[in-house]
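Marked as duplicate of an earlier ticket. Keeping the data here for the record.
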Amino acid sequence: MTFSLIILSNTENESTFQMNHNCLESFVISASLVGATYELVLIESNGNATFNYDIKNLTIIKPQKLFNFHRFFNIGIKAAINDYLILSNNDVIFDLDFVKEAQEGIKKLNLLSYSPYDIKSNKLSKSEVERHDFVKGYDIQKHIAGWCIIVKKTIFDTIGSLDERFPFFYADSDYALILQKYNIQHALLTKCKAVHLESMSKTGKPKIYYDYKNHKGIPKYVIEENRYWILNSERMINGVIQFHRKWGSRRLLKLKLIIADKLQKWGLGKLNKIILFHR
């Protein structure tokens, strides 16, 4: 079982370089503890970056393109040579037993898609995590951690490349639906741990300062339910518009997912390719 860690970065200063280095080094230590074969792939947005990582098995790729979360991961996926790919943010620290627990989870479940567990950001109840070594599902921040996904490379033979219409926001939500469309199970590995350094805490509801009213196509529920974390960001607004443009309205999508879930439980998940149609 071999691994390719792929991270994205726009390294413009020493602090970002150090964050990248810590991420890569934590993975190397975890892989080395179990003698795992690995490679490291850094997709660097800053074409002028000259930082010296001095880390073995590291390849740095500098695409001559504007940053796009899915596009850059697609470049890394194409370049990777190992069986299992870890598509990760650069603000992640891998636990010492990360690779060991990933190996054990993969051997036990033999799935194509997994996420690690982060106690600070994961939304599953503590009791559920403590009771299970893995939890299957597709919920964002519960089962799927958009900041780190472990996949078998052959998954892309089925689902195709990641959709580059999602430059950042809603990329994880799109991935979750693609898995369901192709009847591919996903599991959170509760013993396979990593820390996502980005703060997940929110305090209060800040005043909306971004003028979102000029955007056509914003779903009504986003405004009616005061989803301020969306309305305060032009990039997030564009993400939610693209998401519903592809998958349909929230009401339609909810109905399709109910049907898809039942079909999967009845062993008819292959029909989800028809149910979860999209543009």
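See parent ticket for discussion. The mean pLDDT is 92.
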